[in-house]
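Supplementary Methods. Inverse-folding protocol.

Structures were first reduced to a discrete structure-token string of length 206. This string, shown here, constituted the complete conditioning input.
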């Protein structure tokens, strides 16, 4: 059963004036991948409302940059929307698992690659209206190929593409996965800060 939330605070420790107070909380659905919670809350204006949301264990995405400047990508079928998507490698955290350990594990299991250099790029909440999921993003470099270890039913096509081509796919709507879009732009920013251009970018951006 989820715990009733405590008073929220804004950065710096001050009380959050927009916080909703949880009056009661119940587990509405317990699944294999995530749980669904139903809360009764009191809003700042006194209104009593219902909040339903997904409790997610958290996830990690890997921006894997090859020595030639290309980006490691996957094509994977996503059942809720009924089609395959181009994505960066990612996966959920196991209970008690370290975030970097998860990133390293997911990269190796899904793609067969390992990386000698790792750097955290940031983190984001991807669905704040109905989930507490937070995705940590790591940059992986100096890749070496080994063997994959995907689970049964985890069918992937692994390939590489220049960052410029990935950015063009984002521009034209070929890539719509939000975590991959964020990862691509963060990688572009990372390279720009070091004076490097996106490989394959010439003539692809407006």
């Amino acid at each position: 059963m989820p715990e009733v939330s405590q008073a929220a605070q804004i950065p710096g420790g001050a009380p959050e004036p927009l916080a909703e107070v949880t009056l009661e909380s119940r587990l509405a659905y317990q699944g294999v991948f995530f749980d669904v919670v139903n809360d009764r809350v009191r809003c700042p204006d006194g209104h009593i409302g219902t909040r339903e949301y997904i409790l997610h264990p958290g996830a990690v995405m890997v921006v894997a940059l090859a020595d030639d400047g290309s980006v490691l990508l996957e094509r994977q079928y996503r059942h809720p929307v009924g089609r395959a998507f181009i994505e960066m490698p990612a996966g959920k955290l196991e209970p008690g698992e370290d975030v970097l350990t998860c990133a390293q594990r997911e990269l190796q299991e899904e793609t067969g690659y390992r990386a000698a250099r790792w750097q955290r790029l940031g983190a984001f909440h991807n669905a704040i209206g109905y989930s507490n999921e937070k995705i940590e993003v790591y940059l992986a470099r100096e890749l070496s190929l080994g063997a994959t270890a995907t689970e049964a039913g985890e069918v992937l096509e692994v390939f590489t593409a220049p960052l410029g081509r990935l950015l063009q796919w984002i521009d034209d709507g070929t890539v719509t996965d939000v975590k991959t879009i964020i990862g691509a732009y963060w990688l572009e920013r990372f390279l720009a800060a070091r004076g490097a251009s996106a490989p394959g970018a010439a003539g692809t951006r407006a």
